[in-house]
């Protein structure tokens, strides 16, 4: 994640993909609007409550959660940033 954080400080668009960590806590600060996340859906499944009712640093433990991110979601973010 280091290069993403450096890139965003230099004005380079970054699309963050999140499944295990809360993007509000870990996403590149200047690119929070460019996040593709399945974190909230998975936190509900795993913990039975929304992320705002859990400790700030809650990391999910499920397997293959990143696979739930759809290509179409990423392409939509790329189009929004005129990268595609």
Question: What descriptors fit this protein?
Answer:
5% strand; 84 residues; 37% helix; mainly alpha
Summarize the structure.
This protein is mainly α and 84 residues long. The protein contains four helices and two strands. It has one domain (2-80).
Structure commentary:
It contains 4 helices and 2 strands. The chain has 84 residues and is mainly alpha-helical. The chain has one domain (2-80). It is globular, with a radius of gyration of 13 Å. The relative contact order is 0.19.
Number of structural units classed as domains: 1
Helix share of residues?
Answer: 25-40%
Helical run tally: 4
* Main β-sheet description: 2 strands, parallel
How large, in whole angstroms, is the Cα Rg?
Answer: 13 Å
Instruction: List SSEs in N-to-C order.
Output: HEHEHH
Q: How does the helix and strand content classify structurally?
A: mainly alpha
Spatial strand arrangement across the major sheet:
1-2
Task: Give the topology.
Blueprint: H1 2-9, E1 17-18, H2 23-26, E2 36-37, H3 39-47, H4 71-80
Parallel strand pairs: 1-2
């Amino acid at each position: 994640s280091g290069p993403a954080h450096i890139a965003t400080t230099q004005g380079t668009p970054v699309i963050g993909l999140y499944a295990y960590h809360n993007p509000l806590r870990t996403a590149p600060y200047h690119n929070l609007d460019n996040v593709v996340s399945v974190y909230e859906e998975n936190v509900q499944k795993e913990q039975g409550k929304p992320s705002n009712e859990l400790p700030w640093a809650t990391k999910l433990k499920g397997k293959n959660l990143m696979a739930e991110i759809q290509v179409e979601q990423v392409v939509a973010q790329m189009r929004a940033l005129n990268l595609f």
